[in-house]
Amino acid sequence: MNYIRSKQELYCVILLLCLVLLLSGCAAEGLPDGMPKPYPTVITIIQDDQPLEGASVVLVPMDPSNTWHAGASTDATGKAVLLTHVKYSGVVPGKYYIVVSKYEPAQREAVVVPNQETDPEGYARYMETSVRDATGGGHDLVDPTFGKASPNVTIEVVAGNNEQTVDVGKAVRVERRN
Asked: What pTM does this model have?
């Protein structure tokens, strides 16, 4: 029995099936139980009067009962479009500390590892220094005071669109210590 009589009908059936699959597979994921509706929130980070690309922006709730933290990285225009719990677009209404950081990892040179059997002392020195070197170094490229929750840098997210610009001051290169 032939249910499809022409190529045109076949294309219509295929199009209809694709549309059904698209609509069923692309439906927005529901919010977790108890999560209030998040609202669009964009934070723009400025350093030395220029947009700062590649900075991490985290919103830390001031209210301990608010467990819905948010964050994002800044793009070339210095804008961070925030997500709650890394995947839900927007931020839950509330008051937040704005934490900003940008980190430059320590530069490591290629090292030849001494052979443990033929040079046990050299191998022991390598192991001692490599563990110490791997746990430290690098530089903060934003004043480290912005890397902590501070009452000086806050936002109140409300229903609707939320935008704020944060000026992190002059460019810095502060060595991280353990």
From this structure: 0.69
